[in-house]
Amino acid sequence: MAFVSRGFLGRSGTHRGTGELPPGQYDVGDGFPVLSAGPTPRTATEDWDFTIDGEVAERARWTWQEFRSLPREDVVVDIHCVTKWSKFRTAWSGVSLDTLLAAVDTSAEYAVAVSDGGYTTNLPLEDLVDGRAWIVDRYEGEPLAAEHGGPARLLCPHLYFWKSAKWVRGLRLSSTDEPGFWETLGYHDYGDPWREQRYAGD
Amino acid sequence: MARAAIRRRLTWRIATVATITRESDTARRLALRIDDWDGHLPGQHVDVRLTAPDGYQTQRSYSIASAPETPTVDLVVQRVPGGEVSPYLVDELRVGDELELRGPIGGYFVWHPDTDSPLQLAAGGSGVAPFLAVLDHHAAIRSSVPVRLLYSARSLGDVIGRDRLDGHAGRGVSVTIALTREQPPGWRGLRGRMDAEAIREHTTPADALPRVLLCGPTSFVEAVADGLVAEGHPTTAIKIERFG
Ligand SMILES: Cc1cc2nc3c(=O)[nH]c(=O)nc-3n(C[C@H](O)[C@H](O)[C@H](O)COP(=O)(O)OP(=O)(O)OC[C@H]3O[C@@H](n4cnc5c(N)ncnc54)[C@H](O)[C@@H]3O)c2cc1C
Q1: Which residue of A2, B175, B237, B244 is surrounded by the most CB atoms within 10 Å?
Q2: Span B225-229, mean pLDDT?
Q3: Which CATH class is domain A46-195?
Q4: Do residue B232 and residue B127 come from a single domain?
Q5: Confidence of residue B218 (pLDDT cuts 50, 70, 90)
Q6: Can you tell me which atom of ligand 1 is nearest the CA of A15?
Q7: Three-state SS for A193?
Q8: Domain at B47, CATH number
Q9: How many CB atoms lie within 10 A of CB B235?
């Protein structure tokens, strides 16, 4: 690490030097920045459903009512956005993808999360199971606001937050890895914040 | 070239601060000299990485504010009070200092001059930075694409690039400035926050099928995006860069 920025000391704030902050990130404190590429879609819960399709024996679909009656989990996790902010101890509630994926029979290895507004993002299926990913519809005890991805978003906190697709409506399973929206535009295919996989080639 | 540029591996490189100029009371233009810069598209950004003597590093994104035709790569940074990086870039950095960065980044929030569709730009605060690159490029290539810019700043002293924007207005670009908090006596532009009426009156109508680029703080881009969708602009025509 030869280069030093003359005159820069940095904020001596929270999480610096604790090992909790991935490389290049900063702690945003109480803020919760909003990032998305287009206008915020607003889908009424009556019109909402969640589908798992693609390479499955039979597709699975839940209406909002059905989704809301599934077993729920409360999760408190740290989230890391590729635009450099990290937010610690965020509290969500929703349905584990282990529960949802148990409804389908598949030998697929990849998933594409598909959202209202046309957004997609790709993840290996193994990153969505074993208690590492959820479809969440509540944040800090309140229904998830539209600008943060409501009615429901994917939460997959061990990857950069663009993988946690807002306004999610389904998963498309496949035996091949198909790049999503940002992944097609030069962002990293996998997006591990601890290995600083921001852009293709990182 | 552009599409290849985002595929290439992005490596950290050292830029040298060539000049620093005042863009507003709170913003400075850092003109950077970067060896072997392969060019960029208006709308793209760079990631800046600062390193403290103890090895601590932090990064932020900054839009490229200069056209590809400009020999330097310019950033326009506005000081965010209490911020970790922007006060350093605005107040501490000197001509001749080195800055570590990588880019150009982003293949989505860009203006491709190869279409005839009119261009509607809307910026809040420092969100005007990428549009300075768009407008300078539009001028450099003598584009005939009609452009409108709706720009919201807190006060006249916060307006970034006033001289440049006046210059663009003089060559036919429609520039509308809204001052949200404080207006000088006799101010004839818009005042207050963006509302449905201001958006309707001061943007390209949906039936002209403009490409729309929105940039700035979330509250601003959310309001303008919702207003434009209500006016009948298709969501797919609206591209947004949020500064958080
Ligand atoms: C794609 C992109 C392009 C951008 N382009 C530009 C540009 O061209 N020009 C420009 O000026 N900006 C741009 N930005 C914004 C820029 O990246 C920075 O976010 C901005 O400069 C603020 O950074 P900072 O380090 O000064 O503030 P930060 O340290 O990030 O702080 C921001 C605010 O949050 C508060 N805060 C932060 N952390 C804490 C904490 N732990 N506890 C309490 N409060 C806290 C601070 O007090 C401050 O008010 C861009 C952003 C993106 C994503």
Answers
A1: B175
A2: 95
A3: alpha beta
A4: yes
A5: confident
A6: 41
A7: helix
A8: 2.40.30.10
A9: 16
Give ligand 1 pocket residues (Cβ under 6 A).
A 13-14, 26-29, 31, 83; B 45, 60-63, 76-78, 80-86, 126, 129, 241, 243-244
Q: What is the structure's pLDDT at B3?
A: 45
CA of B73 to the centre of ligand 1 (A): 20
Q: How far apart are CA A126 and CA A106, in angstroms?
A: 12
Q: What is the pLDDT of residue A182?
A: 94
Contact B84/A at CB under 8 A: yes
Residues B91, B136 within the same domain: no
> What total of structural domains would you count in chain B?
2
Tell me if B210 sits within 8 A of B117, measured CB to CB: yes
ipTM (interface pTM): 0.84
Residue B112 lies in a domain: no
**The two structure tokens encoding residue A68:** 């809301």
B164 and B208 belong to one structural domain: yes
- Containing H/E element for B165? helix B162-170
Kindly state the tokens that stand for B13.
């490189």
**B98 in reach of chain A (CB within 8 A):** yes
Using CA coordinates, name the residue in chain A closest to B230: A39
Confidence of residue B1 (pLDDT cuts 50, 70, 90): very low
The closest CB to that of A33, out of B14, B108, B244, belongs to B244
Nearest Cα of chain B lies from the Cα of A144 at a distance, in angstroms, of: 16
Q: How much distance in Å is there from the Cα of B83 to the middle of ligand 1?
A: 6
Is there a single domain that holds both residue B23 and residue B128?
A: no
- Which residue has the least CA distance to atom 48 on ligand 1? B83
- Say what the pLDDT of residue A32 is: 83
Domain region containing B63: 2-105
Question: At A64, which amino acid appears?
Answer: W
Residues B203 and B144 in one domain: yes
Over residues B181-209, the pLDDT tens digits come to 999 999 999 998 889 999 999 999 999 99
